[in-house]
Design goal:
The chain has six helices and 17 strands. The protein has 290 residues and is α+β, with helices and mostly antiparallel strands. The radius of gyration is 23 Å and the shape is elongated. It starts with 9 loop residues before the first strand and ends in an 11-residue tail after the last strand. The strands form three sheets. Strands 7, 8, 9, 10, 11, 12, 13, 14, 15, 16 and 17 form an eleven-stranded mixed beta sheet that branches. Strands 1-6-3-4 form a four-stranded antiparallel beta sheet, with no helix packed on it. A two-stranded antiparallel sheet has the order 2-5. 17% of the residues lie in helices and 33% in strands.
Length: 290
């Protein structure tokens, strides 16, 4: 049994007049206003021993602001948590959600939502990006809960990853029931990726047909490399683009989304050495179309 040290309150002395929210943003050392407002909403902040929930509460020099420890209860996520322990957190990311911030979107990301989730119990908690999924791809997404775990994954990614399995609902059917596609990929100025005879980066994709219908086929896809848009490009060039993928030639959009799902991730845990597999269920609609 592991015995954790009880969390203690933290006290901060006010040096200059002001209001509570800016003071807390500086004291906690976190730029997320949502995180700090959460402390107020949950009644974790006291000024001179009295609980305060208003973010504009005035402060005077000499006063003491106390942040009480959280209850340890997590917040809620709008998508499933597949696994969580002291080192990692694995979620089933929905399609349409960025893994992390971009130039155009800073707030609505899986990273921000997972961060808010863990900080509901401990405002000092952190999560780290280990890998990414494209915004329109759903499925297994892995986060580290400490910097050492993040570095262990990223420094040894090729050695410890055993399988990155995807399910793709494609238009038509591939020419063979199962095969390996090996090409060189290059990205042009318009950020479109395509295969070239030379001068690109090697990309290797394995697929097998799971089920075939009249208009669509369900493929299980494994990656030996992780190039940008690799699966989408290879399947499009094979003549069976991923359904809903207008960028790479799909003619239909039956589910209102890119029909690509990261359904399995298998790796050797970098700290324990144990092989672990996480799976995300097939999204609704994939099965019905085949």
């Amino acid at each position: 049994m592991i015995h954790q040290k009880p969390k203690t309150s933290r006290q901060y002395r006010v040096e200059e007049p002001g209001t509570l929210l800016p003071f807390l943003l500086t004291a906690v050392g976190d730029k997320s206003r949502n995180t700090v407002k959460g402390l107020l909403t949950r009644g974790q902040v006291q000024v001179e021993g009295k609980t305060v929930t208003r973010h504009d509460h005035p402060l005077a020099p000499g006063q003491t602001v106390t942040i009480q420890p959280g209850t340890g209860k997590k917040g809620k996520l709008p998508f499933p948590v597949l696994w969580e322990d002291e080192h990692i957190l694995v979620v089933d990311k929905p399609a349409g959600l960025l893994s992390m911030a971009s130039d155009k979107e800073k707030v609505r990301t899986a990273y921000r939502q997972v961060t808010d989730y863990v900080r509901a119990g401990d405002p000092r908690a952190r999560v780290f990006i280990v890998h990414r999924l494209d915004r329109d791809t759903s499925g297994v997404l892995l986060f580290a809960k400490d910097e050492a775990t993040k570095r262990a994954f990223q420094d040894n990614w090729e050695k410890i990853i055993r399988r990155r399995g995807y399910l793709a609902l494609v238009e038509g059917a591939p020419p063979r029931q199962a095969d390996t596609i090996r090409t060189l990929l290059r990205e042009n100025a318009a950020h479109r990726v395509y295969s070239v005879p030379s001068g690109g980066k090697e990309a290797i994709t394995h697929y097998r047909t799971v089920k075939q219908g009249k208009r669509y086929s369900l493929l299980e896809v494994d990656l030996s490399t992780g190039r940008k848009n690799q699966i989408r490009v290879h399947l499009s060039e094979l003549g069976c683009p991923v359904a809903g993928d207008r960028t790479y030639g799909a003619a239909t959009d039956p589910l209102g989304r890119l029909c690509l799902h990261a359904h399995e991730l298998t790796f050797l845990h970098p700290l324990t050495g144990q092989e672990t597999t996480f799976r995300a269920d097939l999204p609704r609609g994939f099965q019905k179309l085949v």
